[in-house]
Amino acid sequence: MFTVAKANGVISTIYGAKNKELSFEYMYSFLTRKTAYLTREIVRTDGGDKSKVINVYIESLSWLMAISQKLEIDLELSFFSKFPTICPYCISSPCICSQTHRKPEFTSNARAIKEELFQKKNSLYHFGTPTIYAPEMINKIYPSNKNIYNIFGGFYHSSRLFEELGELHEAYTKLHEDKFYNKNNINDELADILAWMLSLWGIIFKDKDLGEAVDNYYINGCPSCNNKECICNNYSGRIISTSDRNEALSKVKALIQNEIDVTSKDPKNSNVLLKLKSSIDSIDDAIKSGSDSDARRSVAEVDSALAFIFQNTPEKTENQSELYGELDKSRKIV
Ligand SMILES: [Zn+2]
Ligand SMILES: [Zn+2]
Fold first, then answer.
1. What band does 240 get if pLDDT is binned at 50, 70 and 90?
2. Which residues are near ligand 2, the ion (C-beta closer than 5 Å)?
């Protein structure tokens, strides 16, 4: 079963040494980038293909864990201290604040609330390990999260995640500006980000253990360099280089050229020929300019030219099948 500490251990083994040399700013920018991609996938795949969400989800979660390690904050303890099976504001489960959309009524004894949260947190731990599946727990406290997700898709979670990311940065900045600032405020912000992330997992992957997904993702160590201790260069990751992309586009171009050679033998094919020739021009432009948009447009143009061909002759030739396969690869990397 997933525990934050176990997943943290996986990240620390692979990236611990490497992350020591990275700045908070560098790590925060990657956390933000991966979270942005995560929100893009959850909004795109509402109710559809969820497999694409998994990788980017684990990458976001990993950066969150790496940042906690950088700041020497126990993310698991921060999370369960803030959300020990009850909402920290109304000390109820399910939360009453979100049902009534107003502040809880009984905020009179702040010290008693704090004590109750502390006791609840302690009761969750058994020999130093929390005995509860956090994604399920957080959605039990906040069942409205699931209702909102079911009605509006991932937009609400996405905006809340970015709100919390902003607050994390603010808290980190205050730590530098304000000499009386309590570092525990950062713990709270990290816990909030984790809460929204775990809520997402609990909703989208209700029956899939997050711990297993993390282990699978890192089964060969770092997925970019395949080392048990990452040796990737900074800013590398699995970024597709311009030359990789141009190579893929050139393969598509060569196969289109074959297609033109065959097509041009029959004068009836003038329409197809025009589309294929225009596709070649677009690929040339994209390779020359190096622009992402040009590359995407050229792939889309080849796609529509192929659709046009298959519309008239649904049976694919060997060259067409190969072209289709190469186009599919290019589509993924442009
Ligand atoms: Zn509440
Ligand atoms: Zn690596």
1. low
2. 222, 224-225, 230, 232
